[in-house]
Amino acid sequence: MAVFKLLRQSPWSARCGLAMVLINIVAAIFAPVIAPFGETEITGDVWLPMSSEHLLGTDHLGRDMFTRLLYGARNTIAIAFVTTMLSFLVGSLLGFLAATLKGWVDQLISRLVDILMAFPTLIFALMALSVVGTSVTALILVIAILDSTRVYRLSRAVAMDIAVMEYVEAARLRGEKIWWLMRQEILPNAMPPLVAEFGLRFCFVFLFIAALSFLGLGLQPPTADWGGMVRENAGAITFGIFIPLWPAGAIAFLTVGVNLIVDWFLHIASGLKD
Hints:
Largest sheet: none
Number of strands: 0
CATH class: Mainly Alpha
Number of helices: 11
Oligomer: single chain
Strand content: under 5%
CATH architecture: Orthogonal Bundle
Radius of gyration: 22 Å
Shape: globular
CATH topology: MetI-like fold
Distance between the termini: 23 Å
Order of helices and strands: HHHHHHHHHHH
């Protein structure tokens, strides 16, 4: 009931964002049911226009674009979500640990994070993926490690402010262990900024995977991926065919939807009424 009440009080921008995200989630979950063809099935000629058979036309190999978009949603969103979850698990855990223990533990973790953050993210990812390969597992691990450095910085900064509060000091005096302090005292009070950051990090990871796929080091063909679909059909623009705009529009559509929800959550967390 509290969720429905919160949704009724939400602004139209948040409702639009939620609807946009839900459309993508439904498309990702029910892609095999909704899609009229198989993910890699060639169903017609190259770059056919929109028709009753091919709602969004065909791609550079004659595969149905509507089908590819649906499967691309499943692949791209799922990988982005798993990667973001892993980066938050690692980054927030290390950030809370550094803020709670302080001293040499804080210095050691922070300096390692500084080393990773010294390299441009895209260049580091390209180098790492060139060495370890472009499998889905390698893609998730490389991006999660790089993204966890940003999560670490935020979680450490938030936890540093919480760790000096009186209720945390009282828990220390009671003899509570480090893990108890992190789980019971720091985590609940750090949730609002972390949840908001999760939405922003998801957008970043989602766009980063699309960029890597566009450069040829993301999800590999014939797996459907929005970034890869833009790269594969980029040549169509030369002939006045706007097929690449469908996956590019899908990327923008989901990104805008997530950001609208994040803006609403930040408004709630700030305590502002208007």
